[in-house]
């Protein structure tokens, strides 16, 4: 998929991995549509990247009506959608049972709704919008990228909801690729390791230090720009389809001490 002069939606595009992706695609000449709930940050990013090639939509990805409105606004401005990068997500660290409480079911449901159901909601509605769209020069209509996590494979204590939601992303990648083949669409997932994002910033400093020390090479947290570089490669490499790429410096998350 050619990036220049094509239109890409980035969910969670106003912060963290999504912000880095929005900025990087913009430097490659793309039209970038930022779906986020942070109005102030989203509008600021549009000014920074240029309003003629950027659009911000205050969007709740778990809402069908909200996503449909964002798609409609995108088509109105840019006429087509050529790709979606799903970065929107939330993280909750909470043990299932402690001496004082049990994991609230509504919290577990919220993590699944945002990370898994919200991702699927955006994909299904964009796929429906683009299923009859003209093929690009690469022979594709649309490319989807989902954000999983290494927590889908080796999650920590307290990550049951988060790991379940990201495991769901990994699990639906291949079935969706098989479905979308007849529509000339591709879908891939990226499973980032520990990156410097607002989510990671919430962890205790000694916890992030311990995780970084266990990254074989390079022995540091990932940079959001490195995630964006992989997004670019997936978009441009038309033979990548139906799989999840770990982007993690070969880390396998260690079992943290019980205090975390």
From TrEMBL:
InterPro entries hit by this protein: KR_dom, NAD(P)-bd_dom_sf, Sc_DH/Rdtase_CS, SDR_fam
> What's its EC?
1.1.1.53
In its UniProt entry, the species of origin is given as Tieghemostelium lacteum (Slime mold)
Q: What is the name listed in the Swiss-Prot or TrEMBL entry for this protein? A: 3-hydroxyacyl-CoA dehydrogenase type-2
Q: Does the keyword Signal apply?
A: no
Would the keyword Oxidoreductase be found if you checked this record's keyword annotation?
yes
Q: Which reaction does it catalyse?
A: a (3S)-3-hydroxyacyl-CoA + NAD(+) = a 3-oxoacyl-CoA + NADH + H(+); cortisone + NAD(+) = 17alpha-hydroxypregn-4-en-3,11,20-trione-21-al + NADH + H(+); 17beta-estradiol + NAD(+) = estrone + NADH + H(+); 5alpha-androstane-3alpha,17beta-diol + NAD(+) = 17beta-hydroxy-5alpha-androstan-3-one + NADH + H(+)
Signal peptide positions on this chain: none
Q: Which key words tag this protein in UniProt?
A: Oxidoreductase
Spell out the molecular function terms from Gene Ontology. (3S)-3-hydroxyacyl-CoA dehydrogenase (NAD+) activity; androstan-3-alpha,17-beta-diol dehydrogenase (NAD+) activity; estradiol 17-beta-dehydrogenase [NAD(P)+] activity
Entry's family note:
Belongs to the short-chain dehydrogenases/reductases (SDR) family.
Q: Which Pfam families match?
A: adh_short
- Ketoreductase domain residues: 6-199
